[in-house]
Amino acid sequence: CCVLPQKILLELGSCMLFWNDKYGDRMWHFAVSVFLVELYGNSLLLTAVYGLVVAGSVLVLGAIIGDWVDKNARLKVAQTSLVIQNVSVILCGVILMMVFLHKNELLTMYHGWVLTSCYILIITIANIANLASTATAITIQRDWIVVVAGEDRGRLADMNATIRRIDQLTNILAPMAVGQIMTFGSAVIGCGFISAWNLVSMCVEYFLLWKVYQKTPALAVKAPPKEETELKRLNLYKESEPKPLEGTHLMGEKDPDIHELEHEQEPSCASQMAEPFRTFRDGWVSYYNQSVFLAGMGLAFLYMTVLGFDCITTGYAYTQGLSGSILSILMGASAITGIMGTVAFTWLRRRCGLVRTGLISGIAQLSCLILCVISVFMPGSPLDLSVSPFEDIRTRFIQTEPLSITPTKMSEIISTADAHMSNGSVPASTVPEMSSESVPIISVSLLFAGVIAARIGLWSFDLTVTQLLQENVVESERGIINGVQNSMNYLLDLLHFIMVILAPNPEAFGLLVLISVSFVAMGHIMYFRFAQKTLGSQLFACGRDDKEVTDADQANTSDV
Asked: How does the protein associate with the membrane (predicted)?
């Protein structure tokens, strides 16, 4: 009779933990972009540099972070990453406050090099905070909730869906809170508020971590790495072998065990320096050898798109005559459809099975994106293939003057940014100026209708692949595999920003839409191949997977 309240307590604690972490994380990712824009005279240069540094760091260090998560105790990893993340944000907020208050003085010191050093320091500390946030996400979302859910896959699916709903809500509420504070206050007050929030949030999250850990004894037990398991098996095999009698060795011979010990040496300095590179290589090789490799690649390909509510799509919308208020409404609608996607995921998984849910979600997303393809050829579309997207590329890359964007317009553009599934990455492109001529809105209306409707299938598919990784990756490799998955996501996200840098003019946006839909289609083709290999002839059979039915029966039997 006490099992149910304890389960509810654990789920409530996990959700509160995720809410606190995600709310502060969303506020910081939104605010740091605005702060960097204001610091550099309403130019996107620092924001672009920050986005590239963040994407490049996770791309290179994702596997190493995941390996660190795997090789250390769960509580130690969660507490360390939590403290580093929040302390970095607090420190960065304090430095930003000092820079905003004394920017003129810093600008005159050593010909502006002190101010430049502050910029570098801010971006570096903010990047450390993002890397720690990545470690926290891998630990809590990919490992802890799997242990808390136990063998109940339905409960795991419900917890994943709840976490995604929290993510969607914080996407709206966190930027609104920071935006109001900065609008009616100042950037300095905004920095102080975020620093204070993270200080309080760190204490609350630390307490919740400890309570969830105490209530879940399974979190204290961690499966050993594969290498250790194999070594133990070999040692047992050696111990079972008959040993030679004492005194059978010749005078000049040494015991083989002593001979082996002599050959064991401490790792050299070069070997220790090469360890991160070996971890990087082994992580990617292990990711490739996973049974869910194609499903993970399919999810990563969805990041190579301009069809999300990020600064790129927002900037294009401004050129088509949409106001900031309309974009805010559209952003709210996208969050609602995202939550609908989480509801659809739980409903489909119960009736069709997990693998088929991803297939249905992919079909739904592609069907909605057809509207985006149609919008490219409708009246009002600026698509003009006669205008080369590479025209004047040299002048764009060597341009030294700040962008001619007013602070008001820039704050509107940034406030509607909802970095598409990228943990706060930002584009390295300029926002085109809004045309003064009236533009038909048929094309842009179809575009955003497709983008908003497609988020139902998008988030349902994202939850499907997330749970597939949770269920099919060995416990001792969850960290490194999910770290590599994050690296793949950031790699495709980085490529889509590079694509926009090469073709930033509105006339080429239709071409970017077609390329984006092509990559989404390729991602779902990869998932279809995975589903075909997994289910075989039962792919199109209606009903839950046999493995899930067996697990559910076992869970019901254990409850009885």
From this structure: Multi-pass membrane protein
